[in-house]
């Protein structure tokens, strides 16, 4: 099974095919008629309908950011008050590794990162996208409410939001079997799966109100107090049901005044949470089971007592959302 999956990856990278599994029928994807199979351990794509169960990346990561500014405030790109922002919904392999830019015919990322499919110079080059931004894809579907929601909660830093959404779609969403264009049948409308992916990413995001969960444990943004990794971890584990990956940036603890001479080299500014899920049937249906992040990659934050800053946002970078979370 592993070797078959690997062959699918290799084929995909080589041909940049729009179809992950070339034998897949465009007609038979009535998932309601099928038993919702579990995404991990991986199903064999040759034995199941890969439109109805995630056979390519069955470990879903619903990811969020805590930024204190966007860098594009002057253009009106602001952060929503008192809520973490959406980063993405990624399909990792069940073993925790992943692939990216799986279908270059659906490349809408203006700033591909990395710039090859493998991240190494010998991978296939991912050409920067120069067409109308991915946000414009929503208009033919009349999804202006979706666009407004995304402009409120799916916020980039130092990049315009739509470019960031294009990045998330092309780098990650093209790697799902269940968001493959073939899954939408003979009446598929161009970019239908893009809309479906955006709605699905939001469906998961709304389930994980990180700000409120932390607040309930009296962990709130502060430029005068600091927090401890284990308290943040335990709170989010209790609320979510799986231990998320907790990401930090900023200075390493051993380079700070408080951590001088410490052997704790973790970072000290809380910026990111990744919630892990397995899913029954299509990710779109949301029948998930929370799971722990890999025990070998739980955090890059400092673990010392009181080592973590959860910073207040910059004055002028925040607005009160007009559409509810
Ligand atoms: C993880 O799973 C994928 C897909 O099955 C496979 O291609 C890859 O080699 C595996 N990686 C490791 C480290 O086992
Ligand atoms: C499509 O449905 C037909 C009739 O049930 C079945 O014979 C065929 O195997 C199905 N094809 C796929 C790819 O599932
Ligand atoms: C791809 O990115 C790397 C750095 O990540 C850079 O050195 C290289 O020049 C880039 N290649 C192209 C063709 O832009
Ligand atoms: C591609 O380059 C990486 C290092 O940049 C190397 O590890 C890998 O073996 C190379 N793959 C091929 C197929 O040459
Ligand atoms: C802190 O840790 C990093 C990573 O191990 C190391 O490179 C650096 O030299 C250390 N700095 C100090 C001041 O100890
Ligand atoms: C760090 O180590 C130096 C030299 O060993 C020592 O003088 C200093 O007091 C130590 N600082 C702290 C905060 O422990
Ligand atoms: C997740 O981690 C917690 C805490 O270490 C542990 O109690 C729990 O059993 C783990 N869950 C799974 C499914 O491994
Ligand atoms: C809090 O501190 C962060 C990090 O230094 C800074 O970016 C932010 O503007 C500060 N917020 C307020 C309200 O002072
Ligand atoms: C941010 O605004 C608050 C009150 O609105 C004020 O107390 C604080 O000094 C401001 N911070 C900065 C860095 O301007």
TrEMBL record:
List the Gene3D superfamilies.
Ribonuclease T2-like
UniProt entry keywords in alphabetical sequence: Disulfide bond, Endonuclease, Hydrolase, Nuclease, Signal
Signal sequence span per UniProt? 1-18
GO cellular component terms, alphabetically, are: extracellular region
Q: Which Pfam families match?
A: Ribonuclease_T2
Q: Name one GO biological process term.
A: RNA catabolic process
Molecular functions (GO terms): ribonuclease T2 activity; RNA binding
| EC number(s) reported in the record | 4.6.1.19
Which residues carry out catalysis?
87, 168, 172
Q: Which InterPro entries match?
A: Ribonuclease_T2_eukaryotic, RNase_T2-like, RNase_T2-like_sf, RNase_T2_His_AS_1, RNase_T2_His_AS_2
Query: Could you tell me which CDD domains the record lists for this protein?
Result: RNase_T2_euk
Q: Which family does it belong to?
A: Belongs to the RNase T2 family.
Q: What is this protein called?
A: ribonuclease T2
Species of origin: Lentithecium fluviatile CBS 122367
Q: What lineage is this protein's organism placed in?
A: Eukaryota, Fungi, Dikarya, Ascomycota, Pezizomycotina
